[in-house]
Amino acid sequence: MMASMDDKALTAIAFKLYALPIEEFVAARTAAAKAAAGSGKELPTAVKALPKPSAAAWAINMLAIHEPGVLAQLAELGQRMRSAQASLDAAALRELARERRTLLATAVETARAVAERQGRSISATIAADVERTLQAMTADEGATAAVESGLLVQSLSADGVDTVDLDGAVAVPGAVPAPLSTTTQLTTKQPPAATAPEEERTTAEPGTRKPADQPRLKAVRETPRPASPSALEKANAALGEAMAAEEESARLAVERQSQLADTEAEVADLTRETRELRDRLKAAEEQLDSARKNLGTAAAEAKQAARAADKAKRSAMLAQERVLRLGNTRD
């Protein structure tokens, strides 16, 4: 079914909004909803409902818009990893896990640089969410399409067993193409029994009950089943995945330990700086108390001096009057 005009308009607006710096999103969304008011009620309401992306999702959208080649490399790697997993190639999985670590580190640093060019710094926590989302991208085709869409609103994660939960992950789900494996599966389904040749539907004996999809069932029965992997092959594949997971966990542990050391050093510096500031504050408060005391003393002395000056002035005036009186008496 073709998308309606409102769906197309909503998608076009969403692409513009999610390409903006994150600080401009809310104001731009409000303006876009007002501008769409002439298109009826549905489109403005849908625009207002577009969620503001998380910081990690925004950083990945910036990566999809400004550095799509980085995501293309991860998408291609994800295809190779899924192929190796399907063929139970443990050695290939270990090698691909190492390659993924390198690509993820490069992608996260690129995301940092792109975000900074857009006026936003990426913290260690946000960078970890970005890395987890890009790792999920390599594990699931649906996640790949969501990440590459540039319409991501929340970070993703994958445990390596289940498919990535994409519920609410994309602003306009209809704008994200379905994974290739899904479309291929849909186009290769067997036709329903109703399309069987007319002669097969009419040759049954009257009164007998023929299964409606007998030709299809017959084809399924006659199709040889692929050989199941042996227990050793499964064990080798599981070993490869476990070793890859162990290497990844070890790398994350080293990274987190390094972050812990940096944080501890930062805390120590801030503690020392806080102690120094407290000492300086205490000294300043002592100086302030002393100055207030000196101010009180100075005020009292100034008041006393003013009284003495006033008294001396009056004495001088009286002496002057006496001199004048004595002078007048002599005359």
Characterization of the model:
The chain is mainly alpha-helical and 331 residues long. The protein has a domain at 53-178. It is built from twelve helices and no strands. It has helices spanning 5-17, 25-35, 42-48, 55-66, 68-86, 90-117, 124-139, 141-148, 180-187, 198-202, 214-222, 231-330. The longest helix is centred in the C-terminal third of the chain and has 100 residues, at 231-330. The termini are far apart. Residues 181-228 have low confidence and may be disordered.
List keywords for this structure.
331 residues; 0% strand; 12 helices; 71% helix; mainly alpha
Q: Give the low-confidence spans.
A: 181-228
Mean pLDDT: 79
Could you state the order of secondary-structure elements as H and E?
HHHHHHHHHHHH
| Count of alpha/pi helices | 12
Query: How far apart, in Å, are the first and last alpha carbons?
Result: 132 Å
Helix content: over 70%
Proportion of strand residues: under 5%
**Secondary-structure content class:** mainly alpha
Form type: elongated
Radius of gyration: 40 Å
Number of strands: 0
Major β-sheet profile: none
Short description:
The protein contains twelve helices and no strands. It has 331 residues and is mainly alpha-helical. The longest helix has 100 residues, at 231-330.
Strand and helix map with partners:
Layout: H1 5-17, H2 25-35, H3 42-48, H4 55-66, H5 68-86, H6 90-117, H7 124-139, H8 141-148, H9 180-187, H10 198-202, H11 214-222, H12 231-330
Helix pairs in contact: 1-3, 2-3, 4-5, 4-6, 4-7, 5-6, 5-7, 5-8, 6-7, 6-12, 7-8
